[in-house]
Amino acid sequence: NAKPENGKESNKPQKALKPLVDVLETNDTVYLIADISGVKKDNINIGISKNSVELTVKYMEDPEIEDATFTQKERSYGETNRTVKLSSEVEVHEAKANFGNCTLTITIPKVVEDITKVNIDD
């Protein structure tokens, strides 16, 4: 068994790493861009509330290679959750998601408050 620089065994199960997420905003839209590699889109679940987005990602199980043991294990395996708080309230039912090239992009319109013009009587 090869040992990493710290001298500890590296073939012990690792917790799945949480996806790295960028959040961008325009005046009317919130965008979340997450790096998620080694996953099929069917293994990604997205939950959206008015002020947060929850990502649940299920990474593949250990590779199935007969009679092989890990000598180094750095990739994520298993399931992980990540909740991202939003600074603006969003339109939950109008969210859209796209997954390609290991990148998940979620686009959510912000809630637009209706402003009613009031006439001033003389």
Summarize the structure.
This protein is an all-beta fold and 122 residues long. The protein has strands spanning 20-25, 29-35, 44-49, 52-59, 78-85, 96-100, 103-109.
Chart the SSEs and their pairings.
Layout: E1 20-25, E2 29-35, E3 44-49, E4 52-59, E5 78-85, E6 96-100, E7 103-109
Antiparallel strand pairs: 1-2, 2-7, 3-4, 4-5, 6-7
- Biggest beta sheet summary: 4 strands, antiparallel
Radius of gyration: 21 Å
Major β-sheet strand ordering: 1-2-7-6
β-strand number: 7
Distance between the termini: 88 Å
Secondary-structure element order, N to C: EEEEEEE
Q: Give the structural class.
A: mainly beta
Q: Count of helices?
A: 0
List low-confidence stretches: none
pLDDT averaged over residues: 87
Query: What proportion of the residues is helical, as a percent range?
Result: under 10%
Which term fits the overall shape? rod-shaped
Percent range for β-strand residues: 35-45%
Notes on the structure:
This protein is mainly beta. It has strands at residues 20-25, 29-35, 44-49, 52-59, 78-85, 96-100, 103-109. The chain has a 4-stranded antiparallel sheet, with no helix packed on it. The radius of gyration is 21 Å and the shape is rod-shaped.
